[in-house]
Amino acid sequence: MLLRLLLGPLAAAPLPLPLRRRLAVAGGVRAMSSAAPAPSQRSRRPLRGVVFDMDGTLTVPVIDFPAMYREVLGGDAAYAAARAAGGGAVDILHCIEDWAPDKQRHAYEVIARFEKEGLDRLQIMPGASELCGFLDTKQIRRGLITRNVKDAVDLFHQRFGMTFTPALSREFRPYKPDPAPLLHICSTWNIPPHEVIMIGDSLKDDVVCGKRAGAFTCLLDETERYGPHDSLPEEVKPDFKVSSLTEVFTVLEENFDLAPASAESRI
């Protein structure tokens, strides 16, 4: 079980005026914890690394996943059955991993086509550049885990001039929600998982990956598709829930001691 965060209006170093203006809209951060403790009990946890999901977190969602799933699975009925089996969600990579080679190859071709179309419309998520710049000023490590392909990660790095190290794509096995990729990043950094936060837009992939690894978790839920946090099962409940990356500034400043990674943890 992750340590429950102790929240409250804590002292933090003043931010530059442009960031403070951005944070003015960040008052809606939701923390997944019980009632705030007394001021004398409040403390901030050390944080030395941030790991991001890519699609839907660092980039604007552009892939029509339901259409992809229908084509891969063979129509509406098969898609509905997969959703029912997955509790309303479809893990398409898991669905096809035991298929016959020819059928699996065709499925990956369909997935690759949808992903290629998504790359052509790739857009950075509002607030991503500013957040990464803020982490750099604090000397906080930043990594990336995606179930997309390496070509998509390379294009993201090239197009937007940001580099995440390590940046693990679906060529790294096992992929999310298995904690292996996040644990690999922590090992590479020589930073324990409890000093890292995983940020993503998927409960079943990003939050579960982070929780299983023993890291803090932050769910980006722009459209409130997951509903109130109190309705979420404990096994997928994140430590924080935000509606924009801009709100992550508040999460980090108010709840963590942002400690630079030591020299031996740097690549």
Automatic annotation (TrEMBL):
Pfam families: Hydrolase. This is Haloacid dehalogenase-like hydrolase domain-containing protein. It comes from Urochloa decumbens.
